[in-house]
C-alpha cells in the first residue's frame, strides 16, 4: 500500500464567509482558560509531592523513605499508592463528572457547562489550600476533578464550533496551549514556594489554582454561546444573531442553513450514545478512543505529573528537580505555540508523524543513559549527563507539545457529526481521563519495577501509535465540521466502507442476496 492513499489533505470543504472578529478571539481566549486550570492541576501535584513539609504532614512514610536511601532503591523512593491517589483521584472524579457534563453540554449549552466547571474548581481549590488531613485533601482533588470533567467536555466543543473553519485548528489549540501555560505556571509557583520557610509553601501552591479558576468562571459569564448549541436547543433566531455577530458579516445564510439541517438530523437521534455504535459512526469513535489511549501512552502526563519527583529520583537535588521541571514546562509552552501556527498549514498527520520519530528516539536515548548511569543504590549521573537527560526530555516534550498534546483534543472535537458530538466528546474525555488516572496511579510503581525500562515501554507505544496514524488517520485540516463525513470519511481507503446507514447495509444485503438467487424472506 502506498502512503499517499491514506491522507485526504487535498480535499477542502465549503468555505463560508467569515471574518476573524474580536468577539471570536476574546471568547476563545476566555474559554480556553479551562485548559489553564487543567494544566495547573497537572503541574502542581508533582511539585508539592516533592516538598518535605507536604510529605511530612500527609505522607510521613514516603518522607522517611526519601531521607533514608538505605531502605530501598533510587527508583522506588516515591512508590506509594496513597501518594499516587492524591494525583490520580482528580482524574477518576473527572471521568465520573463527564457523564453529567455530556447532558449539560447538550441541554444547557457549552457556556453554562463551563460556568459549572469554574464553580467546582473554586470550591476544590479552597478545600485543598486549607486541608488539615488527607481526607480533606482528597475531597478537594475530587471536586477539582469534577471541574476538569465539565471543562474538558465543553471547552473543546465551544472552540471548534465558534471558530471560522480556516483557523479552527489554531483556535482550538488555545485550550492545549493554556494547559501547557498552566503546567509552567504551576512549576514556577512550586519553585518559589518550596523556598518559603515555615512549611506552608505547599498551601500557597495549591491555593493559587484559584486564579485560573476565577478566570474560567468570569469567562463563562461573559462569552457568547455557540450558534450550534443555540440552534440545537431550538433558539433559531438567537443562533442566527450570534452567528452574524461572530462571523462579522451579513452573508451567513448558507452556514446557518447547514447548521439548522445538522440540528434537524441531530434531533432525530433519540439515543446519541447508542448511535455512536452505529456502523457510520464507528470510524470517528475508533479514532477518538485510540487517540486518547495513545496520548496517555506517550508517557507525557506521567512525566508532567511527577517531573520534580522523576528528576529527584535521578539524583537531582530538590531545588534542581523543580528547576528542571520549570525548563520542561517552558519548552512545553513554546512548542505548543508552534502547533498553533502550523496545524492549519501543515495539517494534523504531518505533525503527528514527525513527532513520533522525535519522541521515539529521545525516549530510547534516555533509557540507555539511565540504564548505564543510574542503578538501584548508586547514582553516577554527573552534572553533564544530568543536563543531557533534561535536554532529551525537553526534546521529547517539545515533540508531544506540537502533536499529540493539542491534536489529541482537536481531532475528536472536529470529526463527530452534530447528532453524536456531545456523546462523542463525552466518550473522548472519559477515555482520556480513565487512562490518565491509570498512568497517574501506576507510574511511580512502574518506575520502581521497570526502572529505566519505563522509557522503553513508552517508546514501544510511540512506534505503535505512529503506525496507526500513518495508515488509519485521515487529514481533517480546512474541512468544515458539518462536511467531515462527505469530505473526509467517505474518501478514506478504509473508513469509507463504514459510511453507509445501517438501513443501507440491509438493502445491500438484500440486493446481493437476490442477485445470487438467495431470498432472505424465504428463510423466515
TrEMBL record:
Question: Where does the protein end up?
Answer: Membrane
Membrane topology per record: Multi-pass membrane protein
Q: Which InterPro entries match?
A: MFS_dom, MFS_STP/MST-like_plant, MFS_sugar_transport-like, MFS_trans_sf, STP/PLT_plant, Sugar/inositol_transpt, Sugar_transporter_CS
- Transmembrane ranges, per UniProt, are 20-40, 82-100, 112-131, 137-159, 171-192, 204-224, 285-309, 321-343, 350-372, 384-405, 426-446, 452-473
Entry's SUPFAM superfamilies?
A: MFS general substrate transporter
Single GO cellular component term = membrane
Query: Is the keyword Phosphoprotein assigned to this protein?
Result: no
> Major facilitator superfamily (MFS) profile domain: from which residue to which, for each copy?
27-477
Supply the alphabetized keyword list.
Membrane, Sugar transport, Symport, Transmembrane, Transmembrane helix, Transport
Per the record, the major location class is: membrane
Tell me yes or no: is Transferase among this UniProt entry's keywords. no
Q: Which GO terms describe its molecular function?
A: monosaccharide transmembrane transporter activity; symporter activity
Q: Which family does it belong to?
A: Belongs to the major facilitator superfamily. Phosphate:H(+) symporter (TC 2.A.1.9) family. Belongs to the major facilitator superfamily. Sugar transporter (TC 2.A.1.1) family.
What's the name of the protein? Major facilitator superfamily (MFS) profile domain-containing protein
Amino acid at each position: 500500500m502506498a502512503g499517499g492513499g491514506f491522507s485526504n489533505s487535498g480535499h477542502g470543504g465549503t468555505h463560508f464567509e467569515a471574518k476573524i472578529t474580536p468577539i471570536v478571539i476574546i471568547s476563545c481566549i476566555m474559554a480556553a482558560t479551562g485548559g489553564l486550570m487543567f494544566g495547573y492541576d497537572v503541574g502542581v501535584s508533582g511539585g508539592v509531592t516533592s516538598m518535605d513539609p507536604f510529605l511530612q504532614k500527609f505522607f510521613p512514610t514516603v518522607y522517611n523513605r526519601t531521607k533514608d536511601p538505605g531502605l530501598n532503591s533510587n527508583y522506588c523512593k516515591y512508590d506509594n499508592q496513597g501518594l499516587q491517589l492524591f494525583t490520580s483521584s482528580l482524574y477518576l472524579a473527572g471521568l465520573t463528572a463527564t457523564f453529567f457534563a455530556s447532558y449539560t453540554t447538550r441541554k444547557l449549552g457549552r457556556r453554562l457547562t463551563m460556568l459549572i466547571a469554574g464553580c467546582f474548581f473554586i470550591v476544590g481549590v479552597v478545600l485543598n489550600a486549607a486541608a488539615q488531613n488527607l481526607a480533606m485533601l482528597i475531597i478537594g482533588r475530587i471536586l477539582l476533578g469534577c471541574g476538569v470533567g465539565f471543562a474538558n467536555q465543553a471547552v473543546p466543543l465551544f472552540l471548534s464550533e465558534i471558530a471560522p473553519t480556516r483557523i479552527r485548528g489554531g483556535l482550538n489549540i488555545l485550550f492545549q496551549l493554556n494547559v501547557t501555560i498552566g503546567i509552567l505556571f504551576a512549576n514556577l509557583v512550586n519553585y518559589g514556594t518550596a523556598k518559603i520557610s515555615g512549611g506552608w509553601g505547599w498551601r500557597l501552591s495549591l491555593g493559587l489554582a484559584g486564579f485560573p479558576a476565577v478566570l474560567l468562571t468570569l469567562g463563562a459569564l461573559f462569552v457568547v454561546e455557540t450558534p450550534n448549541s443555540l440552534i440545537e436547543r431550538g433558539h433559531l433566531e438567537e443562533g442566527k444573531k450570534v452567528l452574524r455577530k461572530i462571523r462579522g458579516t451579513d452573508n451567513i445564510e448558507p452556514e446557518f442553513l447547514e447548521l439548522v439541517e445538522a440540528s434537524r438530523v441531530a434531533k432525530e437521534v433519540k439515543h446519541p450514545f447508542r448511535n455512536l455504535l452505529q456502523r457510520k459512526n464507528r470510524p470517528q469513535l475508533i479514532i477518538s478512543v485510540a487517540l486518547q489511549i495513545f496520548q496517555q501512552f506517550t508517557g507525557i502526563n506521567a512525566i508532567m505529573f511527577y517531573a520534580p519527583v522523576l528528576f529527584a529520583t535521578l539524583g537531582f537535588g530538590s531545588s534542581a528537580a523543580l528547576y528542571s521541571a520549570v525548563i520542561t514546562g517552558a519548552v512545553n509552552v513554546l512548542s505548543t505555540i508552534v502547533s498553533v501556527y502550523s496545524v492549519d498549514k501543515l495539517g494534523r498527520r504531518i505533525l503527528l508523524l514527525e513527532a513520533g520519530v522525535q519522541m521515539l528516539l529521545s525516549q530510547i536515548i534516555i533509557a540507555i543513559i539511565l540504564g548505564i548511569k543510574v542503578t538501584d543504590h548508586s547514582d553516577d549521573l554527573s552534572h553533564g549527563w544530568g543536563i543531557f537527560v533534561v535536554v532529551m526530555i525537553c526534546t521529547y516534550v517539545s515533540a508531544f507539545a506540537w502533536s499529540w498534546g493539542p491534536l489529541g483534543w482537536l481531532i475528536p472535537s472536529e470529526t463527530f457529526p452534530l447528532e453524536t458530538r456531545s456523546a462523542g466528546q463525552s466518550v473522548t474525555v472519559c477515555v482520556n481521563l480513565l487512562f490518565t488516572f491509570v498512568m497517574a496511579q501506576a507510574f511511580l510503581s512502574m518506575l520502581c519495577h521497570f526502572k529505566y525500562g519505563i522509557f522503553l515501554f513508552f517508546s514501544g507505544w510511540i512506534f505503535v501509535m505512529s503506525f496507526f496514524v500513518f495508515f488509519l488517520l485521515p487529514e481533517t485540516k480546512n474541512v468544515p465540521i458539518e462536511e467531515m463525513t462527505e469530505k473526509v470519511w467517505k474518501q478514506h481507503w478504509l473508513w469509507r466502507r463504514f459510511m453507509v446507514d445501517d438501513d443501507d447495509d440491509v438493502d445491500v444485503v438484500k440486493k446481493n442476496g437476490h442477485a445470487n438467487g438467495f431470498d432472505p424472506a424465504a428463510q423466515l
